[in-house]
User: Fold this.
Amino acid sequence: MMSSLISRLLLGKEPSYVKKYKKFRRAGRELSAKISDFFVDEAVLKRAGKQLGMYRRYKGKNAMIFDSEEDINILMDHLIFDILKGGKNSVQLYLEKVGPENETEEELLNVMACAHLSLFRVKSKSARKRTLILEDLLHGGEITVINIGMSITAIPGLIFFLRLVPLSIDDLYMTTSFAFIFKEDPDYLIERYKSMKGRIKADCEDGRLFIAFYRLFNELSRDNVEIKFMDIV
Assistant:
């Protein structure tokens, strides 16, 4: 309730598309839990953890080690979108073998299957519209993203590595459960990615991209970035 009050006070009347966005946010959390329950077993968990360096030796034993609470969201995002079984990720398999329980889940599963992973620069933002315009630094073009927290606090020029999901309304996208924030020059980040991607073992190209920028985030930015974003729903 407090979050909704803050949202109204800071931002004014909501645009019509925000209602659907909030509905997707709430339903997405529930659906992600269902997908992970269906898809994740010990072998999959260990594989994802090893790829991210989270499953490692600790006091003489192999264990899943989280350096921060954020690592749990990072691991689950990687599990849901980048780990494959039989050439398909968890979203594709869930859609094929379990299926949606309702119209909202069907819409979510279809847009999650079109997730877009890249390095972005904030070009502009509008707290009133709850949106940001992001420049895609890896694939080109611009994308309009709805994220209430980021639309308040993000600074034009800020560099993010994000996974975006189309909202299927007004050409808007929404973020998933993580954000890697960088202060470094994006050309330097891209060169580092190109130099390391051939050595990264992953299930798919998006997985290789995710692992590379997670490593760069840990090396360059995790301890140096003070900005935190909370989406207000």
About this structure: The chain has one domain: 2-221. The CA atoms of residues 10 and 127 lie 8 Å apart. The radius of gyration is 18 Å. Confidence is low (pLDDT under 50) at residues 226-233.
